Amino acid sequence: MNTRIFVPLAAAVALCACQSSKVKISGRFAGSDASVVYLEQVTPLAQQVIDSVGLDKEGIYRFDLEGVAKTPSLYNIVYNGERIPLFIAAGDRLTVNSVGSVVRNYTVEGSEESELLRRFYQTFVAGAQHLDRIATRVAATGVGQEERQRLVREYTEEYFRIRREQLRFIVENKASLAAVYALYQRLPGDENLFNGDSDVVYYRTVAEALEERYPDSPYLQTLLGEIARMDTRISLASQITEASYPDLEIPDIYGNKIRLSSLAGKVVLVDFWSAELGNSNALNAELKELYAKYADAATPFEVYQVGVDTSKPLWISAVQEQQLPWVSVSDLRGRASTALGLYNVQQIPANYLIDRNGTIVARDIYGKSLDQKLAELTK
């Protein structure tokens, strides 16, 4: 699990040093042989230990800080190899206690932001540790194929559960610095929050709320910069030229990733739809007639249909019940799908028609117009 928090976001904290005051952090740690508690400050480049204290015989400790900015910034208490993240502002008086496992059991009093962060952090870390345990069992020797498949399904279900909870926390607590922290947490193997540059919707949601509550926060400016970079990349990706198209690689109903570029040389309709909208039957029925009509054309015709859905059972059921004969794929990320950003899709349904040379020749073309264009392109 990547527990590094947005280190660059602390870059502007030093600018607030003129508005500083004292902070007290105290509490009790029990259930471990460790005798020293460390305090880390998040800097632009690293997490740096700035103080340490020993526990007394009752496990009690205390930190007294000076020069802390009025705008909350990130610190970590480190005890027995585990970290407790805290948002600390000038004048705070925090009590942080734990018995046994620090991450699982710690409590925070005296800071609304730090308590909110605790609610996210403990759940997220517990979920990531669960994933690690499943992955270890999958890799263990002597595990049968059936058991391994069951474990893979369990891993997948747990992964998406954690993701849903993370995104829910961000949206429900968008005006908090804890939401900023949550934006930058990653599960094993992940580089993005959810789906690359389309994650911009979550960054923008938090930034807009943060602007009202913490207009002077250095984290706000960094978020705005991140949003600007994402918007630029999406804009560039959506500027589809006549000579090429954005490639896609999305899983089908069996979990096999299918590249759009694997259909090169064919006339391809890239079609965006959603089983969840409930209007797919008529549209797909019409498209199936055209698909059958041009099945034996001189230039092959194929449909690469992207399901903009979040429910795998619903999407697979729709594909199977409607007996869709073409390439059906979905990343099950709904409106957060990268494919929507790459093709600048603003509403569903939508489509792009690509000729055999890889040139996009039409957009949002249906019915008779699509039939006529296919007759021309598949000769």
Output the helix-strand order: EEEEEEEHEHHHHHEEEHEHEHEEH
Determine the N-to-C terminus distance: 53 Å
Number of helices: 10
Strand content: 15-25%
Determine and state the CATH class of the largest domain: Mainly Beta
User: Which structural class fits the helix and strand makeup?
Assistant: alpha+beta
The general outline is: elongated
Rg from Cα: 26 Å
Write down the CATH topology of the largest domain: Immunoglobulin-like
Tally the beta strands. 15
CATH H-tier superfamily of the largest domain: Carboxypeptidase-like, regulatory domain
- Quickly count the domains: 2
Q: Report strand order across the widest sheet.
A: 13-12-11-14-15
Instruction: Catalogue the unreliable spans.
Output: 1-19
CATH architecture of the largest domain: Sandwich
**Largest sheet features:** 5 strands, mixed
**Average pLDDT metric:** 87
Helical fraction = 25-40%
Summed up:
With 379 residues, the chain is an alpha+beta fold. It folds into two domains: 7-233, Carboxypeptidase-like, regulatory domain (Immunoglobulin-like); 249-377, Glutaredoxin (3-Layer(aba) Sandwich).
What do these coordinates show?
With 379 residues, the protein is an alpha+beta fold. The protein has 2 domains: 7-233, Immunoglobulin-like; 249-377, Glutaredoxin (3-Layer(aba) Sandwich). It is 37% helix and 24% strand. Strands 13-12-11-14-15 form a 5-stranded mixed sheet, with no helix packed on it. It has a 4-stranded mixed sheet with strand order 4-1-7-8. It is elongated. The chain starts with 19 loop residues before the first strand and ends with a helix.
